[in-house]
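If you are new to this repository, start here. Below is one unmodified record pulled from the training split, so you can see the exact layout before writing a loader.
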Amino acid sequence: MNSAVDAAAVAERLERVRGEIAEAAAAVGRSSDELTVIVVTKYQPLELIDVLAELGVRDFGENRHPESRNKAQRIHELGAGRLHFIGQLQRNKARQVGRYADAVHSIDREELVTALSTLERGDAGALDVLMQLSLDGDPSRGGVPLGEAEVLAERIAATPTIRLRGVMAVAPLGVDPLPAFEQVRLTSERIRAIVPDARWISAGMSHDFHSAISQGATHLRIGTAITGNRPTAP
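And here is the target side for that same chain:
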């Protein structure tokens, strides 16, 4: 194993986070079995995928192409699980990402739906997607405004090459995340009136997953709390 990856330290952090998630879930009457932990491996070496897979991790998150493509290849070679693309998606790369990702969490505008409408995945079938919600109105952070969510959901639902699984959101910076995640929960309920199976709520990261769990999150995107400090961008 590559000496750059301290497997024992990763195992210790993963166990600690799993314990914290179980406690946070129990505190609001939920079970940790309801929650999927997506370990974000941004800028981390490929060898970390091997370590995490050995520790039972089955869901991995990446936010940049082509790094995400390389990680997906490793994950699929190992038979280790799923690659979730969680970063903002450019229209001209949408089909490339859609061919190798198992789920895309950042569909936030109609042009991405149009780009993915011609996606070909062979036997893999329709691509699982989540609609990213904007909680602060900052266009640089991505996301569809909450008031426009139903319209985009209907557009996704009408596109056979993709399958709406739920919503994703990033809490605004520098404020209590709880009210923001409450808005995500309420929006999720509205979306399920259109697509009943769109039950995923991808919300919560290393610093705010407790609040996300209390508001019904089903998928947590945890990076440095498990992987350790992130290397410098290549």
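Two things worth knowing about this chain: The chain has one domain: 7-225. The chain has nine helices and nine strands.
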